[in-house]
Amino acid sequence: MRSTKAVIDLAALRHNLRTIKSIASGSKVMAVVKANAYGHGLVQIAKALTNDADMFAVATVQEALSLRKAEIKTPILLLEGIFNAKDLELVVEHDLEVVLHHWPQIEALQNFKTDKQIKVWVKLDSGMHRLGFALQDLALIESTLADISCLANPIRLMSHFASADDPEDDFSATQLEAFDQATKHITTEKSMANSAGILTQKNAHYDWVRPGLLLYGCSPLIGSEASEYDLKPVMSLESQILAIKPIKKGESTGYGRHWFADRDTNLGLVAIGYGDGYPRHAKNGTPIWVNGRTVPLVGRVSMDMLAVDLGPDCQDAVGDRVVLWGKELPAERVAPHADTIPYTLFCGVTKRVRFYYKDKSNEM
Ligand SMILES: Cc1ncc(COP(=O)(O)O)c(C=O)c1O
């Protein structure tokens, strides 16, 4: 059977949460598990964290309902709030917390009848100019929300960084200053830091941090790797060599003939392609781990396979294990070769890949 698989290390995941807690000691942790836990498996990841995370954050009501269906009782925040007034019925029924980022959501709450108390977070736009109310609207929002009887008190406040992943960019400090100024009169719980903010903006930890990528053992910072912060990769994307083929100097491999051998060598054909989520636009030279070393991707990635240059004197054999990213080869090192970021590598793994969840108790 084709052995292409993603191995998910739940012990590493919990280790990463402990590391985050030690970096942001004193803050509660909202574990971001949206987008199928960044491709790692929503329910499995949430179950592994449910005793240690203070809250889960998701993007859609459907994601929240999957967690409740799996009997996860931890508080859940909808990061983009409700998409229409009807969502409020599900919010109440499943005890979800909601972000409010624009006026139509507040109007839906004004018109909603319930005897339950809904917990809300007001999202403020401190400069990213994506979601969120203008900072100067805060007073009006506060007074409007005070008149809505189904809201639990106190409301909480949040904002989001635009470029905390670039330590050279001082815009995060500008955003932090703006958020701080606008909200310092309110003594309520606040949240600002995503993964990059947790690492680079210690003053932005506030009451709650919101790590996504860090949980999965990957650094969001340009030019750095997770091991520098005592974080361990959670996903290992693995396959095997399905064929070895000698190739002569001057010959090419793959569709479009995008690579030519500059010496006689051996190609390893690896059983993974863009049909599994490996990026098709990964370039010649993208590192791939085989038998304790990295070898270069050569030629175009196909749907079901790709080729690597194993070298003229290779000792590799058909069936040998290959790691596309994981412990042996951090995703941070792979992503730039495909002009992308680790987030898209993780989210892109397709359903054809079999997922295995290992914990200390079932080491593979
Ligand atoms: C509002 C918000 N907070 C936190 C996160 C987590 O981000 P990261 O994975 O960079 O930690 C996200 C992810 O996009 C987000 O949208």
UniProtKB/TrEMBL annotation:
Q: Where is the active site?
A: K34 (proton acceptor), Y255 (proton acceptor)
Which pathway is recorded for this entry?
Cell wall biogenesis; peptidoglycan biosynthesis; Amino-acid biosynthesis; D-alanine biosynthesis; D-alanine from L-alanine: step 1/1
Instruction: Enumerate the catalysed reactions.
Output: L-alanine = D-alanine
Question: Where, in this chain's numbering, is substrate bound?
Answer: R130, M303
Q: Which cofactor does it need?
A: pyridoxal 5'-phosphate
EC no. given is: 5.1.1.1
Root EC class: isomerase
Task: Show the GO cellular component annotation of the record.
Answer: cytosol
Q: Which residues carry this modification: N6-(pyridoxal phosphate)lysine?
A: K34
Residue ranges crossing the lipid bilayer per the database entry:
none
The GO terms describing molecular function are: alanine racemase activity; pyridoxal phosphate binding
Going by the UniProt record, its keywords in alphabetical order are: Isomerase, Pyridoxal phosphate
- Which residues belong to the signal peptide in this entry? none
Query: One biological-process term from Gene Ontology?
Result: D-alanine biosynthetic process
Superkingdom of source = Bacteria
* InterPro entries (alphabetical): Ala_racemase, Ala_racemase/Decarboxylase_C, Ala_racemase_C, Ala_racemase_N, Ala_racemase_pyridoxalP-BS, PLP-binding_barrel
Question: Which NCBIfam families does the record match to this protein?
Answer: alr (TIGR00492)
> Which family is annotated?
Belongs to the alanine racemase family.
The job of this chain, per UniProt, is described as:
Catalyzes the interconversion of L-alanine and D-alanine. May also act on other amino acids.
Question: By what name is this protein known?
Answer: Alanine racemase
The record lists the organism as Kangiella profundi
Q: Taxonomy-wise, where does this protein's organism fall, top ranks first? A: Bacteria, Pseudomonadati, Pseudomonadota, Gammaproteobacteria, Kangiellales
